[in-house]
Specification:
Elements lengths: L9 H9 L5 H5 L6 H17 L8 E9 L16 E10 L9 E9 L8 E6 L9 H12 L1 H11 L1 H10 E2 L9 E3 L4 E4 L5 E10 L10 H4 L17 H6 L7 E11 L7 H4 L13 E11 L19 E3 L8 H14 L18 E10 L10 E8 L2 E2 L3 E3 L12 E9 L4 E9 L7 E10 L4 E11 L3 E4 L12 H17 L2 E2 L7 E2 L15 H20 L12 H8 L6 H7 L7 H10 L7 E2 L24 H7 L2 E5 L21 E6 L5 E7 L10 E3 L4 H42 L5 H6 L6 H12 L6 H5 L6 H10 L8 H8 L11 H24 L3 H6 L1 H14 L17 H23 L2 H5 L22 H7 L3 H14 L20 H25 L21
Antiparallel strand pairs: 1-2, 1-10, 2-3, 3-4, 3-5, 6-8, 7-8, 7-11, 8-9, 9-10, 12-16, 12-18, 13-14, 13-15, 13-17, 17-20, 18-19, 21-22, 23-24, 24-25, 25-26, 26-27
Helix pairs in contact: 1-6, 4-5, 4-10, 5-6, 12-29, 17-19, 17-21, 17-25, 17-26, 23-26, 23-30
Length: about 1050
């Protein structure tokens, strides 16, 4: 704000008119009052409080936003978060007259927050640097003077030099606009920081324009009590109000500034708290706190106006009041009550006042509720439409003798309301319900019947409190020119960041900052129906299994037949039956098939050279290699592969009274001349030695079978903790949080990804509670690393790279991309078809909204999203670069990243999740933790040894129940290629979605044709079997 050239000559004029010397100290200090004076003042205050009511329809109220600067000087008081966006309301009014053309004190009440009730922080402002009153006595004198008109003001001004000064300083004549003035708040606030240091602060509003223009000239200062109109005819009596009518089309701006005074060792001085004394601006300079943008005019209807309470304060903030004086906040309220009830009612029919009726139109508002349980409501629902010409009052959506907003319903309402032009925003207010006030809204469509326009407002959210909806069309922040839309966009993102906090964990992907599922925001929780459905599956499964030989549940199995009998308690799939049929599970070719087309086909990699840690010799494999070549020659030819479980080494095992065991094996596999993959050598620990023999298929059958069981046990742990919990769940959750925090609902990347991120935070939060927390958690019972599961995942995260999520790159990195060298790898073949289809779909959608690479680089929200993915979602571990990019350089890279996320959340998770019951159902084929240590000598294993080592009946029952639970689809599941929620409203996107569905049908047909020739079909990547998101 430029330094003012205007000067207040009041003290010189006062001396000239009265002949009295001016003692400035006496004019601003309050004198001690007698008991009678105090009693009289108290009575007057009570009388005003009880007998008068504030007329809240007085003046003009506008709504907008406060954009808090990044480095506010004000001490932390919770409400002014750096970079935050706050809803605000400001009521502008003249202090004494309803005629804007009259010279008057101009006032402004500012409310932070969109609520109409008191608080959370309201500020009062008035033109002039000092308040005309500081207690009830001086307030009484000031109000009586105002009510008595010119003569009363003259007597009051000439009574004390300070009165004259305050009158000259505060009066404004014919300002250009309410927003061109500067306003001061005379209340002094106090806050104590975290260092126990006390700070005082004051506020002011600074408008745009020449602030001196409306101040009194020297000639006018000589008779400041002449407060009539400078011009009897012009301007109109509500010209200031008329200018505020245009804020929806032409945003008005102000600055909110603060003065801060640090309280020293000498303590508070009364003069610092005195509203009649301005603080020295050199000692306490003004600094910007927020940029104020006013974008919407509030209708005159009293029901739409806000109530202001200047004594309702944020936590930690107090009003610093002069010793023995009333709170200045209470004085302001008293002043408004007095003037509302008296002076302002004197000129209700001023011919210069105009109040034209707004142009009306008819809106047809259609609302669709969700199909979830409890998605309906019997609450009264109100909406406000905000457009380029203003906003409507609250519109009640209600039909007489009709139940509105039932679950899974569409309701339409014809509403007569002021025309607001092009609709930009919708605010929804649920309230006054008797039950079920929380409800789920899918979308709102508004038809302007007279303007012949249709507006789509996707929601897909639970309505628990006031909510603001943006239109469904894709928009970009860096291209947005409407301040209302831009600031709303930023505010909604700030609210989401507050609602979805990060929990940063050392050595792990970050997760949501809520420990308990019940604490999650409603939109992050499961639909109730899904919660109950999953619990019912788990309970029914557990009951069936416990009824099976209940008396011996905690004993070892007596034979493999007992394991098989337990699987038959449930209705298992044809795949599970085929695995156990004719003891198929014991065959080496079945072992190899499962590593390529089972439920965990992710670890196999090509072995192109001998390993020092796994010294397999030609002699050991003389009966295994069927091409007549040496092992080294077979390696060079691409026929030798490896399973390496070294990531588990060093992770503590359970060693209490009920110890559990887990090997860290290496398993070598070989592609036979007939194209079948088989295991040929197994070493159960990473370091070779005499107590760590290499087992081969030439060993005794029972020894070789037992060695394969130990590999499968290790594979179980890698599947549960590394591939499934870490890669599919933790990584996807981290990316989901970043997406929800950084991309608004109108961003194309948010719209594209959100169907693939739904429920992931919920399932992970419940999963951590059920799987990891406490002695009764599932992994504590099933795994050998119970209590060290996160250490296991940290070990896996150390080797994680961003490109692991890129299927073509991952396959190439593992050396398994060539179907001629490694045939029958159905996971690879199906994944590549799906990858290409998803990539093409993503490219078609993104090309609609990004024309060039420059468009991608210019998208600040997109770049911030990627930056947070790198720095917070998937942070580096001990300085190791995990390859997560910090920015996106071009459209091709964007398409690849989005394909990675969609594939990981849908296809990758489906491949390793929904087949669990097929393989875990029969314990000997895929055991969890072992009850005995791994063997160190050949030739000593027998059936009794194996049965004592395998899980007990109780552990196996729990394993089956949990696998059955995880492998079950929800009735509400949506699958890849299904788009039940219309997040995109653009027809071009819908065409791309149709293409995608058609292409997925083509892939499905190809997979089914191939499966017809397979003994055990690979069905986990059939598109119709792939849920859209990690939701279980």
């Amino acid at each position: 704000m430029a330094k003012s050239g205007w000067k207040n000559h009041a003290y010189e004029l006062f001396k000239k008119k009265t002949g009295k010397e001016v003692d400035l100290t006496e004019t601003v200090e309050h004198a001690e009052k007698s008991v009678m004076e105090k009693a009289a003042n108290k009575w007057l205050q009570v009388k005003w409080q009880l007998s008068m009511t504030i007329n809240i329809s007085w003046g003009e109220e506008v709504a907008g936003y406060a954009d808090i600067i990044d480095t506010p000087s004000i001490p932390d008081c919770n409400i002014f978060q750096p970079g935050g966006i706050l809803d605000i309301r400001i009521r502008f009014f003249n202090l004494t007259s309803s005629d804007d053309g009259v010279t008057d004190f101009r006032c402004a009440f500012l409310k932070f927050g969109s609520v109409q009730t008191d608080g959370p922080f309201d500020l009062c402002f008035m033109t002039g640097r000092v308040s005309p009153f500081h207690d009830i006595s001086t307030l009484k004198e000031f109000t009586y003077a105002l009510e008595d008109g010119k003569q009363g003001l003259k007597q009051w001004a000439l009574k004390e030099p300070f009165n004259y000064y305050a009158l000259v300083d505060g009066l404004r004549k014919l300002p250009d606009a309410c927003t061109s003035l500067d306003y001061n708040s005379y209340i002094t606030y106090s806050v104590t920081d975290d260092k126990n240091e006390r700070h005082l602060f004051r506020f002011r509003l600074v408008g745009e324009g020449d602030h001196d223009k409306a101040k009194l000239t020297l000639e006018e200062q000589a008779k400041p009590w002449d407060v009539g109109r400078p011009d009897v005819e012009l301007p109109s009596g509500n010209y200031l109000a008329d200018k505020l009518l245009s804020v929806s089309r032409s945003t008005c701006y102000l600055k909110l500034q603060t003065q801060v005074r640090n309280v020293g060792v000498d303590g508070l001085k009364d003069s610092w708290k005195n509203p009649c004394i301005a603080w020295d601006e050199e000692e306490c300079p003004w600094s910007d706190l927020a940029n104020i943008a006013l974008t919407q005019r509030i209708p005159k209807d009293a029901a739409e106006r806000a109530h202001y309470s200047f004594s309702t304060l944020p936590e930690g903030v107090a009003i610093a009041t002069m010793d023995g004086m009333e709170s200045y906040a209470d004085l302001v309220v008293a002043l408004e009550k007095v003037l509302t009830s008296s002076t302002r009612t004197k000129i209700p029919d001023d011919p210069l006042l105009t109040n034209p009726e707004p142009e009306m139109t008819t809106y047809l508002i259609s609302i669709e509720t969700g199909y979830h349980m409890y998605a309906g409501t019997n609450a009264t629902v109100e909406v406000i439409l905000i457009g380029t010409y203003g906003r409507t009052p609250k519109l009640i959506l209600d039909k007489n003798i009709h139940t509105d907003f039932n679950r899974a319903s569409k309701g339409s309402y014809y509403i007569q309301a002021p025309a607001v032009g092009e609709i930009k925003l919708v605010k929804i207010y649920p309230h006054r319900g008797t039950m079920f006030t929380e409800w789920y809204m899918r979308s709102m469509v508004i038809f302007d019947l007279e303007g012949r326009k249709v507006y789509d407002f996707p929601c897909y959210s639970w309505i628990t409190t006031e909510i603001t909806l943006l239109k469904g069309q894709v928009t970009f922040a860096h291209k947005e020119t409407d301040p209302d839309l831009l600031l709303t966009r930023r505010k909604l993102l700030a609210e989401k960041r507050k609602m979805i906090p990060w929990c940063i964990r050392d050595g792990l992907p970050s997760r949501v900052g809520y420990l308990k599922y019940k604490d999650l925001p409603r939109d992050l929780q499961f639909p109730k129906q899904r919660e109950w459905e999953k619990k019912l599956i788990l309970v029914e499964t557990a009951v069936k299994l416990k009824l099976h030989r209940f008396m011996t549940m905690f004993d070892p199995f007596d034979s493999f037949r007992d394991f098989l009998a337990m699987t038959k308690v449930l209705e298992i799939s044809d795949i599970a039956t085929a695995i156990t049929d004719r003891k198929n599970w014991k065959r080496d070719e079945e072992f190899g098939r499962e590593m390529l087309a089972g439920f965990h086909p992710l670890l196999i990699r090509r072995c192109s050279h001998p390993l020092e840690s796994f010294p397999v010799t030609d002699e050991m494999l003389k009966h295994s290699l069927d091409r007549g070549k040496t092992l080294h020659e077979e390696m060079e030819a691409g026929h030798v592969y490896i399973l390496d479980y070294s990531v588990m080494e060093g992770v503590p095992r359970r060693s209490d009274s009920n110890p559990k065991y887990l090997a860290n094996p290496l398993c070598m596999l070989y592609v036979k001349n007939n194209g079948r993959l088989v295991p040929i050598a197994i070493q159960l620990e990473q370091r070779p030695g005499k107590d760590n023999p290499i087992w081969t298929s030439s060993d005794r059958k029972i020894d070789w079978l037992f060695a394969k069981m130990w590999v499968k046990s290790a594979d179980t742990h890698m599947h549960c903790l590394s591939s499934h919990l870490f890669r599919a769940h933790f990584v996807t959750e981290a990316l989901a949080i970043s997406t929800m925090r950084n991309l608004p609902s109108v961003h194309p990347v948010f719209k594209l990804l959100i169907p693939h991120l739904n429920c992931t935070i919920a399932v992970n939060t419940t999963g951590i509670e059920v799987l990891l927390q406490g002695e009764d958690s599932i992994f504590q019972k099933l795994l050998a690393v119970s209590g060290s599961e996160l250490d296991f995942i940290r070990s896996a995260y150390r080797s994680f790279h961003w490109d692991d999520m890129n299927i073509p790159k991952d396959l190439a990195k593992r050396g398994v991309e060539d179907p001629d060298l490694l045939p029958r790898y159905w996971y690879r073949d199906d994944s590549l078809m799906l990858w290409e289809s998803i990539l093409e779909f993503v490219s078609r959608v993104m090309n609609i909204f990004y024309s060039t690479d420059d468009d991608v680089r210019a998208d600040e929200e997109l770049q911030h999203w990627m930056k947070e993915n790198r720095e917070r979602a998937l942070p580096q571990w001990n300085g190791r670069d995990n390859g997560v990019p910090g920015n996106i350089e071009n459209l091709s890279q964007l398409n690849e990243i989005l394909t990675m996320i969609i594939f990981s959340a849908s296809c990758f998770h489906a491949a390793i999740n929904f087949g669990q019951i097929d393989y875990y159902a029969f314990g000997p084929n895929y055991p969890g933790s072992m009850k005995q240590p791994p063997p160190t000598t050949k030739g000593v294993t027998n059936m009794e040894t194996i049965l004592k080592t395998l899980p007990t009946k109780a552990d196996q029952a729990l394993s089956i129940a949990f696998a059955y639970y995880l492998s079950s689809y929800s009735k509400e599941e949506t699958f890849l290629g299904d788009f039940p929620d219309a997040h995109f409203v653009e027809p071009e996107v819908r065409e791309a979605q149709k293409w995608f569905k058609t292409d997925l049908n083509r892939i499905s047909d190809e997979i089914k044709r191939r499966n017809m020739d397979l003994e055990i079909p690979y069905t986990y990547l059939l598109p119709e079997n792939i849920p859209n998101s990690v939701s279980v």
